């Protein structure tokens, strides 16, 4: 008698592996989307901080612009707009003076580091991140909401 696996044993082992893969894939896809949303919120926060730094360094106002319809943002001094991942819901909270059109708005930073204040909300599914800008200090913070 030879040692080895029968065709039936190999088929059962492959079936079990396939079932495990089918169960794990949705979990990893969900986790990827959650990490992608968190990363996008951190990127927006970094762009806001960069805009504030540029306002202070240049000793003049600098503007962070967000286009809700296209899902892109542009920090001050950037040559091109930065796209956000598809499926990310956006909302901009800013002063009325900073609404440039129906879907485009800005958060302005001043040479002393202060700002017009406001924030950007990024959401997908049941997760949401708020990137808030303090009007007095210009400080940027990220808050997770569930």
Structure write-up:
The chain is α+β, with helices and mostly antiparallel strands and 146 residues long. The protein has one domain: minor pseudopilin epsh fold (3-Layer(bab) Sandwich), CATH 3.55.40.10. The chain is built from one helix and eight strands. A four-stranded antiparallel β-sheet has the order 3-2-1-5, covered by helices on one side. Strand 2 (72-74) and strand 3 (82-83) form a beta hairpin. The longest helix is centred in the N-terminal third of the chain and has 52 residues, at 7-58. The chain is elongated. The chain starts with 6 loop residues before the first helix and ends with a strand. The mean pLDDT is 92.
Number of helices: 1
What number of structural domains do the residues give? Answer: 1
**Strand order across the biggest sheet?**
3-2-1-5
| Main sheet characteristics | 4 strands, antiparallel
Q: Termini, distance in Å? A: 61 Å
Residue ranges: pLDDT <50 for 5 or more in a row?
A: none
- Percent strand: 25-35%
Helix content: 25-40%
| Strand elements, count | 8
Shape descriptor reads elongated
H/E series = HEEEEEEEE
Task: Label the CATH architecture.
Answer: 3-Layer(bab) Sandwich
Helix/strand class: alpha+beta
Features of this protein?
four-stranded antiparallel β-sheet, alpha+beta, 146 residues
């Amino acid at each position: 008698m030879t040692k080895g696996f029968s065709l039936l044993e190999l088929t059962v082992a492959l079936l079990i592996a396939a079932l495990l893969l089918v169960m794990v894939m949705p979990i990893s896809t969900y986790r990827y989307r959650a990490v992608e949303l968190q990363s996008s919120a951190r990127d927006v926060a970094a762009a806001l901080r960069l805009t504030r730094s540029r306002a202070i360094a240049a000793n003049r106002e600098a503007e962070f612009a967000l286009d809700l319809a296209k899902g892109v943002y542009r920090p001050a001094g950037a040559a091109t707009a930065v796209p956000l991942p598809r499926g990310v819901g956006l909302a901009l909270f800013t002063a009325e003076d900073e609404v440039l059109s129906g879907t485009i708005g800005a958060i302005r930073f001043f040479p002393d580091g202060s700002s017009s204040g406001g924030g950007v909300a990024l959401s997908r599914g049941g997760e949401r991140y708020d990137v808030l800008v303090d009007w007095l200090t210009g400080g940027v913070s990220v808050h997770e909401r569930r």
